[in-house]
Design brief:
One of its GO terms (molecular function) is oxidoreductase activity, acting on single donors with incorporation of molecular oxygen, incorporation of two atoms of oxygen. Keywords: Dioxygenase, Metal-binding, Oxidoreductase, Zinc. The protein has helices spanning about 5-10, 40-50, 90, 100-110, 125-135, 155-160, 165-170, 200-215, 220, 230-235, 240-250; strands at about 25, 55-60, 65, 70, 115-120, 145, 150, 170-180, 255-260, 265, 270, 275. It is an alpha/beta fold. A hairpin with a 3-residue loop joins strand 10 (about 265) and strand 11 (about 270).
Length: about 280
Amino acid sequence: MTTLAAFNQFTSELKEQETLMPVLFVGHGSPMNGIEDNEFSRTWKAMGKQIPTPAAVLVISAHWLSQGTRITAMDFPQTIHDFGGFPKELYEVQYKAPGNPALAKETSLLLTSALVEMDHDWGLDHGAWTVVRHMYPEANIPVLQLSIDYTKGPQYHYDLAKELYSLRKKGVLIIGSGNMVHNLRMVAWDKLNESEYGYDWALQINNKFKELIGNGHHDSLIRYESLGKEALLAIPTPEHYWPLLYTLGLKGGKDAISFFNDKAVGGSLTMTSVKIG
């Protein structure tokens, strides 16, 4: 079967729309944001009402790393509680959004740079459901997750995202979920309840990231290790940063950029989020 024939067989029947769907990078922060009514979750809820209603949501989460690339392809993805030490209430959450196996296959065929495997075991981890359940509380919009291949580098992830661009034309909301500044080893746990607290280095590099994003200097963001010691403190491991690169890779030439939830928490984390389009 030719690639075109395979594509036609598995088409999700999503039609191109007049309005190009925005792309989001969301700083998801603590899993507790999934059940708390706070400034971050309220902004997610408002964002769900502000942007066009999507035909489906595709999340690239910091919490699904794999060798190779995988995409959830089940009818109803499970809610994954991939954390420990939180209140019972958080573990009882079930976000019962449907999946979309046909869209999963269509997406895999778009990603010509990767051999994408259909996954029936994962589901929606907390990088996905803690955000999406506030945006779409009725769980009536299909939600899929695309894994991050941990064997690849930043340029690969940025370039791979570009192959997803046509999904924006079909009303698919693509969300990168992580945190720009994410150093759990340096968290000031006694400051977590303060409305905003960031170490000088965290605020400095977060502002630098925003400047580079706003000016379209993606090459510098891909080569973040060259941005100095502050960047290395912000990104001790890259999994929470990679979703930002997927979001940036999906930017079109005419897309506007705005920031939301632009705050630091616990000294060494930032919730800064980006809307493109």
